[in-house]
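Researcher: Structure prediction, please.
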Amino acid sequence: MSTINANSSLEASSVEQTKTQIRNILVEIAQLSKLDIPPDEYHSEFLNRVVSAMGAVGGAIWTFDAGTLTLAYQVNFHSIGIQGDNDANRRHARLLYRMTQSSDAGTLVPPHSGFEGDNESGNPTDWLLVFCPIRTELEVVGLVETLQRVDSDPLIQRGFAKFLSQSCLLADDYYKNRQLRNFGERQNLWTLLEDFTRSIHLSLDVNETAYTIVNEGRRLIECDRVSVALRRGGSCRIIAVSGQDVVDKRSTAVRLLSKLATAVIKAGEPVWYTGDTSDLAPQVEKTIEKYVDESHTKTIAIFPLVKKKKTDYEREEDPTRREKTTYPFGVLLVEQIESSKINERMRKRIEIVADHASSAIGNALELREIFLMPLWKLIGKSKILVSTRMLPKTILVTIILAAVICSLIFVEWKFQMHCDGTLEPSIRRNIYSPVDAEIKQLYVDHNSQVVGTDKNGAGTILLELYSSELESEGMRLLGEQREIVQQIESLKIQELNADKKLVDYELTQIRGQIDVARIKLTTNLEQQELYKKRMADLVIKSPISGTVVTWDVKRKLSSKRPVSRMQSLLEVADEDSAWQLELNMPEKRMGYILEHQKRLRETDPNASLRVEFIMATDPNKKYYGSVMDNGIHDRAEVRSDTGSAATPSSSLNIVLIKVDLDDQDSLPTSIRPGAQCTARVDCGKKPLGYVLFYEVVAFLQKNVIFRWF
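Model: Predicted structure follows.
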């Protein structure tokens, strides 16, 4: 009994858990149906949840597109198993249309079944199909289909139909909300059309009008690209393309599009291309095929632009007579890159845009054809300046401009060269690796206080290196020493135990070999001393007392990290020493600085250039200093300029300038080495216009005057 009760409890718990999961999924679908998301995204989220909750093998959502059911989204729908069977596909398609007309909320269709009196529709598959239409108050908008196994209990199958019915009721809300939004979009369409017609008639400039038409027309038509071509002589040229500020007339696509516009304008009839060229004129067919091969466009609508006029005699005979169509002056080209269909909605919008474009561009062309039109415009605008009403203002503006020009020429102003720099301690050292090695041990960190090495070699150890090459060299020297010592001992034994029968020259030869071996031993010992010094150099001590200013030392110099010879490892600075400003002056500005320094030295040989600077951390306070004697580096260095978010990085020729500070005590106590500063080096006085535009003057001298005169 206890076992039965336990099983019953488990089953009840499992059923309750399943119900809870289904309720949660329905809540998720309800929340999803309230969102304003695209149908593709909604179909994906909706069907995945439904298939998962029902434990279905697969499923599909069918929607109406121009009165035809199309597959909007599917999950494992290939399991239906009717691919390649035309008869089965036809019966299944008929079944879909029958289910859209069904008044039942959820319908179960057993496998290999049909309807009485209807042999054309039925379930040709091995699965139990569950259907439920998606409806709004106006129409059926879609159909949901799921594939279920046939071995499930009938009660569970009815539960499937009930769950799918409840899910589709929630989907109904999504489509109802979408229809309401569509009604709002129609109102927006009228607003867009009104804005379009207003914007294209604001200007009478041909290019500006064309660019407005292609960009605003693309938004109104909702296509991928709109272009305008104008006829010049017997051919057309593309003058505006939507989304492009400049038309590259040398590109292959633009040239082919121009040829296509020329062919259409000669035919004088609109062209609607959706992939089939059988109804097109031969000259249009060839050009459109070449352009499609190049641009991969799937749909093209080409509409000739004509200027409609009424002649005087036509107005007298019949005032209600329609305008006479003249020869086209250009074409409007509308392209779809992904879609290969032009629906009625898009066709009407293209005709509206083409009609308004004909009027707007035609008026602009008519105005442009007036003889010397730019000159008449300029004369017309300038006439206003000397009119009675504007004459006092014109005189006042003229006086102001004259005063400004005189100020720029005759008023002198401080001439200063700007640059960036850093504040650095005057005493600082970079620590370099003496050999190619790897990090063995690091003893300091950022901001560690260190003591400089004294005469006795005592000082703070910064880090220790390990070199496998030096280790091998030491072992080699030690082995070589042992061999030489053994050789000397062997030769001495031969000398002591020599037989009296040995000839004198043989004894002399042995003694000579002993002398050579002793020389080798001396050389070996000297090399070992040099080896010990090199090994001692692997233990790097601080050359000065101060602070380790290198950031994140432990990460940069982690254990066993390889380093190369003369690679900078650390920087130690004495922050208690005097601070100095190091400026990175662009080389192109050094001429003004050296010229002013030369003028100062002519009157006072000890005169120095004055420098004014601010710190990035406190731009409100100014500091002052003087360029050191011999503080200007003799050579320029190429350094990288990282630029800003708006300008890319580049390389600049930089001249280093060192500056002594007037008041060391005025610096903040929290200053750190490498603090960023902006400085101005005094270069005397120049006319105000030269101070403001000296870079422009230098550019003209280098690129215009020097190059051409």
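Model: Confidence is low (pLDDT under 50) at residues 1-7, 642-649.
Researcher: Thanks, that helps.
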